[in-house]
Amino acid sequence: MQQEFSDLVFAYACLPTYPSWSFVSIIDPKACKHAAFDCLLEYHQVKPDQVIAFGDADSDKVFLSRAGLG
């Protein structure tokens, strides 16, 4: 699949407690969490301070810092 979609970023991971499980995040390099956050705010007609956000990666800081509670 990675060869077929070479323009995407494939990030692989596994869990030590489940060594037979494999995970992959497939990301478009043009994706932007800042823009996605703005899009969701507009769609739901809410302000950033009305949002509770969760994240577990450094890249999540983009919206965690903008949310009312992150």
Strand order of the largest sheet: 1-2
- Runs with pLDDT <50, length 5+? none
Whole-Å distance between the termini?
Answer: 34 Å
Portion of residues within helices? 10-25%
Cα-based radius of gyration, to the nearest Å: 16 Å
- Total strand segments: 2
Summarize the main sheet.
Answer: 2 strands, antiparallel
Mean pLDDT: 91
How would you characterize this protein structure?
This protein is 23% helix and 24% strand. The chain is built from two helices and two strands. Strand 1 and strand 2 form a beta hairpin. The radius of gyration is 16 Å and the shape is flat. The relative contact order is 0.15.
Task: Write a brief structural summary.
The protein has 70 residues and is of the alpha+beta class. The protein has helices spanning 33-44, 61-64; strands spanning 9-15, 18-27. Strand 1 (9-15) and strand 2 (18-27) form a beta hairpin.
